[in-house]
Amino acid sequence: MARPRTDLRALSCGPLPQRIALAGRADARAELLLLLAADEAAPVRLAVAANPGAPRHADQLLARDPVASIRASLARKLAEHAAEMAGLGWDSLRHLARDPAPQVRQSIADTLADQPGAPHDLVLALARDADPAVSEPLIRLSHVLTEADLLGLVEAPPGPEVRCAVARRLNLGAILAEAVVASGDRAAIEALARNPTAQIPASLHAKMERPRPTR
What is the band of 213 on the pLDDT scale with cuts at 50, 70, 90? Predict the structure, then answer.
């Protein structure tokens, strides 16, 4: 005799602790996780957002969730697993990279900063973000950004902290060091001087010294 089909709607309407536990189970049925992605309780939706086993339709629903922390959790999960999702994860991340809440964009940037396989267009878009909490980790750490990308950021920075982030990059090349000094941005030049891994040509050292005030 066949076992009776589980009543998914009954499960999705159970006590809150039970719904949260179900929402976090990677082996839960896709239909159940989709129902829980629309749960009225934010902790339940948050658990689905962080669940790597959630179906694509649940993720798409949560990408429009009114709670920014839920969208941020979803963004972090997608950034961690996008390479395994046959391109669908990157498409969802491109959408979330335009989210009005900085914490959502920051979740993506923090996760992609050390991923060499992240799409160049997505990394560059976030590196050009006007919020330094979003752009800084990528500018300072990402190997996806090219020298041309970084030169463009030095020449036309979207925010006041951008040149400093470039100046702090590990093993900063001589061309970029010259661009930082040529910008005249004193804070960035000082950050460059404190970067022990930067390749600073000898000809730049005199230009990097702070002018002494006249009496």
Answer: very low
Look up residue 39 and give its two tokens: 């749960």
Question: Is pLDDT at 21 greater than 70 in this prediction?
Answer: yes
Angle of helix 120-127 versus helix 147-155 axis, rounded to 10: 20
pLDDT digits (tens, 9 = 90+) for 171-183: 999 999 999 999 9
